[in-house]
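Morning. Coffee machine broken again, so started the prediction first thing and wrote up yesterday's gels while waiting. Chain of 65 residues, entered below exactly as on the submission form.
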Amino acid sequence: MNNRKPWWRSKTLRVNAIAAALVAFEASFGLLQPLLPVNFYSAIAVALPVVNAVLRVVTNQGVRL
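Came back before lunch.
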């Protein structure tokens, strides 16, 4: 278990933190929606789980807090 990496080095957690920050930013300020295509949110809703799955498959270390 000593080969675990710090949580902040996890690509999966980074991608999800960025997605959560963008969602919170958009919910608070509403600045992104006018700049993005109409189907952008649908594409992200499909792409984010796929990205998470790919990152989990290529992961070879655990995460420590």
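The chain has one domain: 8-59. Going to sketch it on the whiteboard this afternoon.
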